[in-house]
Amino acid sequence: MSAARTQSFLWLAQRASAAVLAVCVVVHLATMIIAVRGGLTAAEILARTRGSVAWAAFYGVFVLAVAIHVPIGIRTVVAEMRGGHSRGVDGIALAFGVVLVVLGTRAIIAVTGA
Amino acid sequence: MTRETDPHRTATLSVRVWRGGGEGAYAVYDVPRRPSQTVLDVVTHIQRRIDPTLAYRYACRVGMCGSCAMTVNGRARWTCRTHVEAVAADDALTIGPLAHLPVIRDLVTDMREFFDKWARAKGQFAPTATRREEFARIVPESEARRAADAAIECIGCGICYASCDVVAWNRAYLGPAALNRAWTLHNDPRDGARTERLAAIAGDAGCHACHTHQSCTERCPKKLAPTASIAGLKREVARAVLAGELV
Q1: Strands B69-72 and B92-96: what pairing?
Q2: I want to staple B160 with a disulfide (CB 3.0 to 4.6 A). Which of A65, B109, B194, B216 is the partner?
Q3: A7-65 tens-digit pLDDT
Q4: CA angle A24, A28, A31 (to 5 degrees)
Q5: Mean predicted lDDT score pLDDT of chain B
């Protein structure tokens, strides 16, 4: 696969993940506001989310979209700070993506794990 | 009577002009202010009446050739069509070479990198017919012809290139003018190198590097919209990638 083709796919992946994130962020914020305004405690929220396949699936998609979207943006930001693209820049972006997956997965397990 | 409407006023402009190459400094010149004076008139006055060693470029003086672009009070402008009264606040002007290009001397930049990137973006027409074939019939109202028309009047002045932040941050970036040129050719049904051109302008150094700041569109003296051309290229590259045309 040519570099131009790979980079075009990265651009497409960032746009597609942004579309998913737009929905996820709205659902996430609305849920938080409803839960807090409804006066639910942390324990009551966890009682509803723990063991829930639906919430685990929702936040799984959310974390996946973040882990795709953010490193592609970081790759551009770092490249522009360093004056150009390089393998090192790709490595930094990839490492950032791995960190996001690990932290996101930990959070999902904490909130929805049985 | 205000200064702008007084035809007899003999005000003097204080003009700071870049002297030297990449390393240099601004020198200050006093230039008499005249009615309908352009920034190019000011530079010409300095060279002909004050210091003949001042280097600058111009040719047509009527906004056609694209050779007189300079940085005027911090913004890239075509100096032959920029009136002093529109830009000289407090009778002061600061004139420098275009940004993002190596300075040869004074107000003259080395434009090679700018035009080399047009070549890298495959900015040449690739013919598919010879003189023995019939004339191609291009419907003026067709979508492609209208897209090309909207972008085709570029005079290659380099103002968009000097105004683009991405050019400063990413030295490989082809820049708005080269991508705009590629877009006009992509919309020419007679052209035979459209897939190769899309491959040349896709990716980190091409259309995908554009952040849509629209500085090029805001400052283009011909009122073109390179940002729209680049957006069109992004759409076309996406289509070509998904269709498997780009390998």
Answers
A1: antiparallel
A2: B216
A3: 999 999 999 999 999 999 999 999 999 999 999 999 999 999 999 999 999 999 999 99
A4: 140
A5: 95
Q: What confidence score (pLDDT) does residue B7 get?
A: 53
* Cβ–Cβ gap A12/B241 under 8 Å: yes
For the stretch A71-95, pLDDT in tens is 999 999 999 998 888 899 999 999 9
Under a CB-based contact definition with an 8 Å cutoff, are residues B84 and B42 in contact? yes
Nearest to B27 by CA among B57, B41, B12, B47: B47
User: Which domains are assigned to chain A?
Assistant: 3-112 (1.20.1300)
Which of these, A61, A54, A75, lies nearest to A19 by C-alpha position?
A: A61
| Structure confidence by residue, pLDDT tens digits, B51-63 | 999 999 999 999 9
Alpha helical stretches, state H, chain A:
3-37, 42-49, 53-82, 87-112
DSSP element (H, E) containing B144: helix B143-151
Q: What is the pLDDT of residues B89-144, one digit of tens each?
A: 889 999 999 999 999 999 999 999 999 999 999 999 999 999 999 999 999 999 99
Please list every residue in chain A whose beta carbon sits closer than 8 Å to the beta carbon of residue B182: none
Q: Inter-chain contact B171–A3, Cβ cutoff 8 Å? A: no
Instruction: Report which secondary-structure segment, H or E, holds B76.
Output: strand B75-78
What's the ipTM?
A: 0.84
Q: Which one of B169, B234, B246 has the shortest CB-CB distance to A4?
A: B246
Q: Which residues of B touch A (CB under 8 A)?
A: 166, 169-172, 199-200, 202-204, 206, 208-209, 234, 237-238, 241-242, 246-247
Those residues whose C-beta lies under 8 Å from the C-beta of residue A15, and which sit 6 or more positions away, are: none
Tell me: the pLDDT tens digits for B193-228? 999 999 999 999 999 999 999 999 999 999 999 999
Residue where the block lists tokens 């190769």: B196
Domains of chain B: 12-109 (3.10.20.30), 112-242 (1.10.1060.10)
